[in-house]
Amino acid sequence: MKVKHLTTSFRSIALGLSLLLAVGCNKQQEQQAETTPEAPEEPTLEPLTSENAVEKLTAFGKENPDTIAIISTRHGDIKVRLYKDTPLHRANFVRLAKAGFYDQGEFYRVVKDFAIQGGDSDNRTMKQGAYKIPQEFNRKYIHKKGALAQARYGDERNPDKESSSHNFYIVQGNPVPLEQLRSWEATHGIKYTPEEIRIYTTIGGEPSLDTEYTVFGEVIEGLDVVDKIADEPVDGSKWPKNIVTHKIKVQ
């Protein structure tokens, strides 16, 4: 089922190779039976629930301090830094990446000049469980171009703005006029610093998402790849017409 918002839900073919060996003897040949190597086992991932997610992610985060992730696509690699002070979101992203969960995903929603959203696929076989992550809003982190953030369910079902278990997005955005930025300050009850104003008005981003979704990282290399993905032709549901799969490795 396709996803139409910054929300949850969604899209491996194992190829077996057979090997036929023949062994020669003096006056005759004995042909071995055809053998087919066993297909590699499907990676496993312990499903989490909203009741145990915080405990499990906290423990995992302490044992896995990774803060760099490489998102590989057919357009190239996007290198992101994961913030240590959004520990649950960092641990969750690292956990899913190390389990191979994200290697079954794709950028399934692309809105040019806004964001590219990934993490899921209609073709996924691995299950992660039904859980949400408590929001970890941090005033230091804004939705500037290249911000990595977590999608979530809508307000009517999620008044605490808890994050999705696996769907993430990377902001593309555009430069924002100062008067529009002032309007978002009033809407969200925040005051942007001079540096944040400079970033939004020159580099760009999407201030409408501030205080609404948890930003837990940022692109440090590969913003051009984000732009290339954002340029992909899409259908009426903003799903790229040519699949943009991703594989994610952390370090």
Polypeptide structure, described:
Residues 68-245 form the PPIase cyclophilin-type domain. It comes from Pontibacter burrus. Keywords: Isomerase, Rotamase. One of its GO terms (molecular function) is peptidyl-prolyl cis-trans isomerase activity. Its EC number is 5.2.1.8. This protein is an alpha+beta fold and 251 residues long. The protein has a single domain (52-250), classed as Cyclophilin. The chain contains five helices and eleven strands; from the N terminus they run ββαββαβββββααβαβ. The strands form two sheets. A nine-stranded antiparallel β-sheet has the order 5-11-3-4-10-8-9-7-6. The chain has a two-stranded antiparallel ribbon with strand order 1-2. Strand 6 (109-111) and strand 7 form a beta hairpin. Helix 1 (53-63) packs across helix 2 (87-98). The longest helix has 12 residues, at 87-98. The protein is globular. The two termini are 32 Å apart. The model is unreliable at 1-5 and 7-36 (pLDDT under 50).
Main traits of this protein?
251 residues; alpha+beta; two-stranded antiparallel ribbon; 5 helices; 11 strands; 21% helix; Cyclophilin_A-like; EC 5.2.1.8
CATH topology name, in short, is Cyclophilin
Q: Care to count the β-strands?
A: 11
Q: What's the shape?
A: globular
Indicate the CATH architecture: Beta Barrel
- Taking Cα atoms only, what radius of gyration do you get, to the nearest Å? 22 Å
Q: N- to C-terminal separation? A: 32 Å
Largest sheet: 9 strands, antiparallel
Report a brief summary of the structure.
The chain has 251 residues and is an alpha+beta fold.
